[in-house]
Amino acid sequence: MQTVLYARVSTVDQTIEHQQKQAEAAGFKFDRVLSDHGVSGVKTCLHERPEGKRLFDILRSGDILVVRWVDRLGRNYDDVRQAIEEFMRRGVVIRTIINNMTFDGSTSDPMQKAVRDALIGFMAAAAQSHAEVTKAAQIAGIAHAKSLPDGKRYKGRKPSYTESQLDQVMNLADQKAGVSSIAKVTGLSRQAVYRIVDDPTAARASLIEWGSARS
After folding, report:
1. What letter would DSSP give residue 64?
2. CATH code, 3-106
3. Which tens digit of pLDDT belongs to each residue from 111-137?
4. CB-side exposure of 30: number of CA atoms within 13 Å?
5. Can you give the pTM of this predicted structure?
């Protein structure tokens, strides 16, 4: 039996090391770590990524797959759900660092199976929904920044957060994490977290104004 951490980062200011340290702080120990860099969870299915594909090759019954949250497996409802169901069919247990969720295919109780499957569906839908909301906010932020006349734009204070931190704040907020918890995980101040959560569109527009976001 082996425990495998799978990490995915899609931007240059995210790091695999952060996800690994977060997992270790939560008490997880690993036999190996697989990671995909610069890969979109929306556009690329898990089995199409170099290291994501390896998961399907190496994981066997009794193994444990650890991910920060289900969005590391993907940002598409069908992809996430099918991946989790395939791993469970093989006897692999999936555990998440955030929320400490466990998905185990060995249960035979119909009520437990119903609750588990409903939760998988909900979390897969949340992963896709968050990706769509983030994209919409990014588009709105770009439009807002471009609508201001050249030379008359007030950039405001330079953001104290990166784009990946903004995305992480919104991800955790979607999961109903408290401001203090979000601040601790992201390394941001409570004030920065409040500003992002209160108006994510303006927060992203500020990044764009300062040239700190992908256009």
Report:
1. E
2. 3.40.50.1390
3. 888 888 888 888 788 777 777 776 676
4. 20
5. 0.62
